[in-house]
Amino acid sequence: MRPSGRKLDQKRSVSIETGVMKHAEGSCLIKVGDTHVLCSASVEERIPPFLRNTGLGWVTAEYGMLPRATNTRNRREASQGKQGGRTVEIQRLIGRSLRAGIDRSALGERQITVDCDVIQADGGTRCAAITGGWVALRMAVNTLLKAGVISSDPIIDHVAAVSCGIYAGQPVLDLDYAEDSSAGVDGNFVMLGDLRMIEVQMSGEGSVFGRAEMNTMLDLAEAGITELVAAQKAAL
C-alpha cells in the first residue's frame, strides 16, 4: 500500500490555473497533489551574445523554492550569495526540456525566461515546474502571436514531466515526498506530447533495477504524461 493510498499507476490530482500574474506574458499555478509551483514566462527582446545574428531565439528557466516550501525552513539562496547545485541542475533541466518543444527560428531573436517558484513541496517539484512552465511558455507565445510580433507558431508540441520509481519493491507512478525519500529507485521522465522522450533521469538509490522494471516505469510514465498533457489542454 502506498502511503497516500493511491494505486501503483495512479497520479496525484492535477490542477492548472492560468493568468495568475498580472504583468507576465504567460503564467500559471500548477498543483500536483501538495506540490504547488508558480510559473511565469517573460518575453525579452534580447538574446544571449552567442546567438546574435543567428536568427534563433532562446528559452531559458530559473527555479527556486520559498523558505517554507518544505517542512523546515530553508535559507534563501540569495542570502547565501549563490545558488545550490540542486537548483542549478533543475533549472538547466527545465530550460533544456522547454527548448525541445519549440522551433527557435520561428521565435526569432528574442528570449523567453520561464521562472518556476516552488510555493509548497511534496515531491516532484522539477516535474511540476516543467509541466507548468510549458503552459506559461505557451501563453507567452500566444501573446506574441496575437500582437503580430511573430507570424508563425514556434511551439512544436506539448512538454510535460512525471516521476516514476520503485517503492517497497513495486514500480509506481508520480512519487510524493514520503515515497521519494525512501524509494529504492527514483526517476524523472520528460516527454513531448506525442510521447517521444526529451530526457530520462534514473538512479538506483537503495537498490538496482532491471530492464523489465525499467520498461514498466516507462509505461507508467507514458500514461502519466498523457494525463498531464490533457490537463495542460484543459487549462488553456
TrEMBL record:
Functional note: Phosphorolytic 3'-5' exoribonuclease that plays an important role in tRNA 3'-end maturation. Removes nucleotide residues following the 3'-CCA terminus of tRNAs; can also add nucleotides to the ends of RNA molecules by using nucleoside diphosphates as substrates, but this may not be physiologically important. Probably plays a role in initiation of 16S rRNA degradation (leading to ribosome degradation) during starvation.
Top-level taxon of origin: Bacteria
| E.C. no | 2.7.7.56
SUPFAM superfamilies per the UniProt record, alphabetical: Ribonuclease PH domain 2-like, Ribosomal protein S5 domain 2-like
Keyword check for Repressor: no
Q: Which UniProt keywords apply?
A: Nucleotidyltransferase, RNA-binding, rRNA processing, Transferase, tRNA processing, tRNA-binding
Which source organism? Pararhodobacter oceanensis
- How does the record describe its quaternary structure? Homohexameric ring arranged as a trimer of dimers.
Q: What is the gene name?
A: rph
Protein name (Swiss-Prot/TrEMBL):
Ribonuclease PH
Q: Which InterPro entries is this protein grouped with? A: ExoRNase_PH_dom1, ExoRNase_PH_dom2, ExoRNase_PH_dom2_sf, PNPase/RNase_PH_dom_sf, Ribosomal_Su5_D2-typ_SF, RNase_PH, RNase_PH_bac-type, RNase_PH_CS
Binding sites annotated in the UniProt record for phosphate: R86, G124, T125, R126
Which residues does the UniProt record annotate as the domain Exoribonuclease phosphorolytic?
11-140, 159-223
